[in-house]
Design brief:
elongated; 2 helices
């Protein structure tokens, strides 16, 4: 039998994900008050950043 020419794939276990604890309402309000632009607000809420051809767009 011929040997395989392709290298053997080694499956590595997935890295453990950090579990976020649920934020309290007071923490969310504090983070929203400290947010300076729409992308920071989106990050607090859990949305992807807002982008466009001319930079971030304000949509909130």
């Amino acid at each position: 039998m011929a040997k395989e020419t392709s290298p053997r794939k080694i499956d590595s276990p997935p890295s453990p994900r950090r579990v976020k604890r649920p934020a309290t309402t007071d923490e969310l309000v504090e983070r929203l008050l400290n947010a300076r632009n729409s992308n920071e607000i989106a990050a607090v809420i859990g949305l992807p950043p807002i982008t466009g051809l001319s930079g971030p767009k304000v949509a909130y």
